[in-house]
Amino acid sequence: MNSTGVESFEPSRLILARDRAGLTQTVLGELVGVSARTIKGYEAGSIAPSHQTLRDLARVLEYPEAFFLAAAIEALPLEAASFRALSKASAKIRNKAVASGTFAVSLLYPFLSERFDLPAVNVPDLREETPEGAAEALRSHWGLGQRPIPHAVSLLESRGVRVFSLSEDCDAIDAFSIWRDGVPFVFLNTRKTAERSIFDTAHELGHLVLHRHGVPQGHDAENQADRFASHFLLPESAIRADAPTVATVATVAAMKKRWRASTAAIGRRLHDLGRMTDYHYTQFNKYLSQRGRRIEPAPISRETSVVLRKALGELANEGLDAKSIAKALNLPLAELRALTFGLKSIEGGSNQHPSRKTVPPLRLV
């Protein structure tokens, strides 16, 4: 490495910061005042930036200088993440999402796991099952029976899934999930409707149990995860028993309070189970389309991470606020907020939270 450069400069962190910013090597070089070839050299580790160039990189990318001088970070493999709506998400957006996920997996999660006894992982491998069979098997394994799930995010967290939020600049991605060193992670888009986010949570759970040892991409994998989510959130026998005599938008919307799924998802489940005729299902969908799919009848409250709310609350009581945590991780405060559902919402506010018994108490180590 060039002896005139900053000796402790870490190339892997520059790559991650550039991916998060959505910049090419050429554009970053222009903004910093060096060539694309020089940026390539920095990222390859063949040369190091000068102290002035490091300051310029930190300014342009909006990361503290200390971020680029800390230990190397192994980026999450793009091909191992389950992405929804791939047709809408460009390579740049996927790279931004994976870089953000890398910060959660490699920085924030270790920070929390060193300080708390987090729930143990209890997510079985159900790849030999059909999506419908996997949903039933998992409900049985987790002792859920046929009852509704009052809080999907906290259910996953209580079984060891680490749930984080996606930053708003990754709006084209609904959600994604990944296994890392035997630990499952789910990332949720907070700009979708609350109902859509719950379905995305179950969809990603489907990827975790069905595609743990494969690359969960493609239409077949997405279809399997959708079928799993529908059966997991809306179990057949219970939905048959709860189905209205006449399934209309109003009667289906009335089921939402109990089942916490979108009107469209419940309507499709009723149709699949033969409790809504083809004619009524067509009229049902016409009404929802005219109304706008993003506008839910009888909207429900949004779910956020209970583990993060509890952990950050405990750390705040110990005098470690969000700014202090961001500084300890060498991350911008905005990056920390992007991963933790905005911080303010999980430290209190009007969001719907489950009872304290839903997720085991976190013990400060």
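The above is record 1. Record 2 follows with the same two-line structure.
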Amino acid sequence: MTDTALIISAIAPVPVDRGKRVFLNGLLEYFVERLGESNVHYAMVGGDPAEDAAIPGVVHHLGQPGTVAKLSALARCVRDRSYTAQQAMLGGAALRSEVHDLAARIRPTVEVYDTIRMGQHAPATPRARRRVLYLDDLFSVRYDRMLTFAAANDDAVSFDPLGEFAGNVPGFARSLLRRPAVYRPVLRLERDRIRRAEDAAVRLFDVSLLVNEAEVELLKRRAGVDSVELIHDLLPAIPAGPRRPVSPPELVFLGKLNLPHNDDSICAFLREAMAGVEQRCPGALLRVVGSGARDELRALAAAHPDSVRLEGFLPDLEPVFDRATVALAPMRMGSGIKLKMLDAFARGVPVLATSVAVDGIPVAPDGSDGCLICDDLTRWPELIAELADPQRTAELSAAALAFFTRTYGREVVGAQYDKIFGLGSAGAVTSDVTPATATATAIGGAGSVDVPAQRRWPSRPEEAHNR
């Protein structure tokens, strides 16, 4: 019997423009290589049929719950303290029936449900040989950190707690839920409910997946199960070519700017560190790449017209990284793996980060993996000046690339997926770096860093950096 795979998600896997889509697209391509395109099915809520041709495998569209269905599901939250708003926005009998009918028709060997929002619809029967719940990161931890951060800052910093989930919330409720007096108690309520939901959900699946190793151990303890495992993203292959960091230095911040953790972090950097960077590194340029800049960020950037550039979304990151001295990750809140950092490591770009930004990424604290860690943003101008030295840049570039290869290289992650999903290596996942012991060398001028040839598997129309 031919093995088949079914992935069920609330979002489309293309364009590959943010973290969740990076994972979903990589997972799809893994299954296609292992099983063949006709044996891989992707079911998504809504979606644009015009994009189907760009999605590997066989595409299925599920109906988006309407406002009435969402309000009915929210009413259940009042009656049922075990039910979460995350589940309610994608609940309803109609969607559940569609999922059940699709699973019964396909009868896949492997089923993957994207978070508990879709996992709530997994049918009791038929059941795949391997039923998997992808949790991404623990929303209970994410909400707790948001609450802690908001309390510590006493609303001195504003952010949008809905982020990209806003599209699933009825319009009349969005402005209400963005008010601190409303979202704080709502987040507390949702945090407690979703913690119970996470603990219960993992008992219903053969394996549940998280991107953060510390959260893997936390969920195992909370739920009293061993069936929670770590999973890495199978990242897009990175183009070949040398890096040529410029002088004066260019700094890069990547992130979808309407996400609370990204918006807060770049605003904090501009408030606390940018003036010092201008003083220590005259002519330095900060390139902020990502869509969704809010008015506060635009105002802060306007205060540094010669040294801060809001680039918006860029479909091609190669020119940005080729010139960059360092990638910045000044995160003060958030959970899960920050893919913006992996983008930089994969290209041999040194990273300057906070301890929050490296949560779940096993970099050495001494900088030997190409990442300097400092939580005091007022010290960052000093560290950026250090990184502007060409020899130091070259050393950290080599370390960053070597770290990525041994930890997140495609052969490493492909073997991890084989184990998780119970599939053999009928098709080898193409290596992204050759050789594995990659090196970087400074060559004259401001420094040219040689990055060894890498192969695409396959090419992507967009760069996955808005996260």
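Residues 180-201 form the longest helix (22 residues).
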